[in-house]
Design a protein that fits this description.
Number of helices: 33
Radius of gyration: 32 Å
Oligomer: single chain
Strand content: 15-25%
Strand order of the largest sheet: 16-17-15-14-13-12-11-18-19
Largest sheet: 9 strands, mixed
Structural class: alpha/beta
Number of strands: 19
Length: 743
């Protein structure tokens, strides 16, 4: 028998020995092969097979040694690192297990990253465990690891200084998998999510009883996930048991019943409420005639959803969750798990649980002022195909035919984001002249230079450009999403700027637009006039800066020629949303970081002995919009400025002093004798620290300042024209200010 045949026979005999449980014999035969240099390379896979058998037999130490021996022969032996990690974990060799898992996790598979996180947790390396768990969550495309990742985060906490959020879940099915998905996704993004789940099926009892556990939990966000199948079962199971009019009335009655519960929740809690709409089944019991008859199943469900949505629009802080869109994106089979529904009343499969978790997280971000504000994009192979510096303007892929049409679709998605108030910016390694030739002149460009609030087209590292863009736009790095096709560039930005959300466009360009469309980081709970005009206002800011540089004399002369006008008035009802947005999003010039939802702001503005003053600023270049808020409350002859907020885009021009002067005048007009200012320091609000001191207030304590308005006033800058509307006095002018009525 030849050596080659001998080796094959021996290897086969070893496999049989392993399968038969003759592990000692297999070990001896493997040792024999390993002693022969010409057959040593064949030994590693046999050792892995032997080690797996020993592990199954409960001998973790022997299995670990077999894995070590296999990896010593060939560190890339299939299954070797996997076996070593499992065996080391069971043998209590956690540091060794971590080393093997780290090797596996380099591939980025969510399951491997999660196991690495668990192993790191056992070794006590919580920071590395958080990083690995975060990688697992962000890489999980099907939601399969989220529940396990939630457990890891529960043990080690979210990364960084976590932002707390309390979310209550109530619904008609078992919601723990959905809540767990939300907790994992939230933790990976720096939220410390605490969740409360209503007992199974007891959503009505919890919402209608003011003393229920739901309200005792004091949630900031309430998820009401009642399936259409639960509230109008006949529409789903047997719609032809009713005539068209009865189906319509059933849908309306069910919607009214559900929204009655939501109204009770609105009365009992200030929490933001997310109410699920009903999902339309992929196939109707009526068959293909469903759309041909009046109020077939699909039309009846649509009518139910429309009634819910209309009622939600009439209530503050209530938002529908469009389940139909989520299910359509996943497919009914990918969204629901009928087996777990029958076994444990768990309707949502892992992929739908993940999609819902993302939806709830988007609402939590918006609620806490954590929505992203700016998308920074690369150019080559992102906004167009190819490299303009190599291919030339005529050679890039951009147009109405594929693949150029795929890049136009990306630009259309970015333009839609801009129209929602998202700032667009560019960070590209390129020759500026080449890139600008495309941006300004290519006939198939959807986006033009005017659509970008900032541009950095150079050969510097992109993370340096991102820092400059954030500084220019006066936003935090945690407000940026970065879009790029290059994995290496994305990895560098992630490493240098972990606050930035990085989106890597990989694979077929046909899918790039869908990736952008599915981003939830920019979602908000309202859309104000300022949002719609944001890019325009930044463009005006660039003109303003250029003008200031061209008219460089004294600062005061600059500001006089700028023509600043400050309009101060009580908050009108239509501006409540913008006031709440400023309270939520402004961190720098914010004296107390008091956050409030719309309905709480409205209550404050309309309650006796409380009020909300708003500041609008305009100049020769345009209207900055509503940029300032002062909320006050009165006790006796003393008025307290509970919070004073000013957008950073108007700082440095004396607006803060002029606004405070107008607030002091308002206090005097109300007959109060003293005004108390309060400053509570945070990590970000240092720009507001000296406001009250600089305006002549006397310090009372570490946080409180006082001004006697019978003896003192605040002098506004002479270069600002201020119009004010004070109680009982029509239009009032502070000293050195022109007077006009504010409508």
């Amino acid at each position: 028998m030849s050596t080659e045949e001998d080796v094959r026979v021996t290897a086969f005999r070893i496999q049989l020995a392993v399968d038969d449980g003759a592990l000692d014999q297999a070990s001896r035969d493997i040792a024999g092969l390993a002693s022969r240099p010409e057959t040593r390379s064949l030994v590693a896979p046999l050792l892995v097979r032997l080690g797996a058998a020993k592990l199954a037999a409960g001998n973790a130490e022997a299995a670990l040694q077999a894995a070590r021996d296999a990896l010593a022969i060939d560190e890339n032996t299939p299954g070797g690192a996997e076996l070593a990690a499992r065996a080391a974990t069971l043998a209590g060799a956690h540091h060794e297990a971590t080393a093997h898992l780290a090797r596996l996790a380099r591939g980025g598979a969510p399951g491997d990253c999660l196991r690495l996180a668990r192993s790191l947790q056992r070794t006590g390396d919580t920071e590395a465990a958080r990083a690995a768990a975060t990688r697992a969550v962000r890489g999980d495309q099907d939601g399969s690891v989220l529940a396990a990742a939630a457990d890891v985060f529960a043990a080690i906490g979210a990364p960084g200084p976590a932002t707390p959020i309390r979310v209550a879940f109530a619904g008609s099915s078992t919601l723990e998998p959905v809540a767990a998905a939300f907790r994992a996704l939230a933790a990976a993004e720096g939220f410390a999510a605490e969740t409360w789940l209503a007992p199974f099926g007891q959503y009505a009892e919890q919402l209608l009883d003011p003393s229920s556990g739901l309200y005792g939990f004091q949630p900031q966000l309430v998820v009401l996930a009642v399936s259409g199948r639960a509230i109008v079962p006949a529409i789903y199971g047997d719609p032809l048991s009713m005539d068209a009019n009865t189906r319509r009335m059933a849908a309306e009655g069910a919607a009214d019943e559900l929204m009655g519960m939501v109204r009770a929740a609105r009365a009992n809690s200030s929490a933001t409420i997310l109410v699920h709409l009903a999902a339309t089944p992929a196939r109707s019991p009526i068959g293909m005639l469903d759309r041909a008859i009046p109020y077939g199943q699909a039309e009846t469900i649509a009518h139910f959803n429309s009634r819910i949505s209309a009622a939600a629009r009439e209530m503050q802080g209530v938002y529908p969750v469009d389940l139909d869109r989520l299910v359509a994106a996943l497919g009914e089979g990918g969204a629901f798990d009928r087996r777990t529904e029958l076994l444990a009343r768990i309707e949502a499969g892992p992929r739908l649980a993940s999609a819902l978790g993302e939806t709830y997280l988007a609402a939590a971000r918006a609620l806490l002022g954590k929505s992203r504000k700016c998308l920074v994009t690369d150019l080559d192979n992102t906004l167009w195909g190819g490299v303009v510096g190599e291919d030339g303007v005529a050679g890039i892929q951009l147009g109405h035919d594929f693949p150029g049409s795929a890049y136009r679709a990306v630009q259309e998605e970015l333009l839609a984001l801009k129209r929602r108030g998202v700032l667009l910016a560019i960070s590209s390694k390129n020759n500026e002249a080449d890139a600008m030739e495309v941006l300004e002149g290519h006939p198939d460009m959807v986006l033009r230079p005017r659509d970008f609030a900032a541009m950095r087209i150079n050969w510097r590292d992109k993370h340096e450009n991102l820092v400059e863009i954030a500084r220019e736009l006066n936003i935090g790095l945690d407000s940026i999403v970065f879009l790029d096709d290059n994995p290496a560039e994305c990895a560098m930005v992630r490493a240098a700027l972990p606050q930035v959300e990085v989106v890597n466009l990989l694979g077929d360009p046909a899918h790039f637009a869908g990736i952008v469309r599915r981003l939830t980081h920019f979602d908000t709970l309202q859309l104000t006039d300022e949002d719609l005009r944001r890019t325009e206002m930044y463009a005006q800011g660039r003109e303003r800066t250029a003008w200031e540089r061209a008219h460089a004399t004294t600062i005061e002369e600059h500001l006089r020629e700028l023509g600043l006008v400050l309009d101060v008035a009580p908050a009108p009802d239509h501006a409540i949303g913008r006031v709440a947005q400023l309270l939520a999003k402004t961190n720098q010039f914010n004296t107390t970081t008091l956050r409030m939802p719309d309905d709480a702001v409205r209550c404050w503005a309309t309650t006796e002995r409380q009020g909300v003053l708003c500041a609008r600023v305009r100049d020769r270049f345009g209207d900055h919009g509503l940029v300032g808020v002062a909320m006050w409350s009165r006790a006796g002859d003393e008025v307290t400025i509970d919070t004073f907020v000013l957008s950073c885009r108007v700082l440095g021009r004396g607006v803060e002093r002029a606004f405070l002067a107008a607030v002091v005048d308002d206090v005097r007009a109300r007959g109060a004798s003293q005004v108390r200012g309060r400053f509570i320091p945070t990590a970000k609000n240092a720009p507001a620290a000296s406001l009250f001191r600089d305006c002549g207030f006397e310090q009372l304590s570490a946080t409180d300042w006082m001004l006697d308005v019978r003896e003192s006033t605040v002098e506004p800058p002479a270069w600002i024209t201020t119009t004010t509307e004070a109680p009982g006095r029509g239009s009032v002018a502070a000293p050195a200010m022109e007077v006009s009525l504010v409508s």
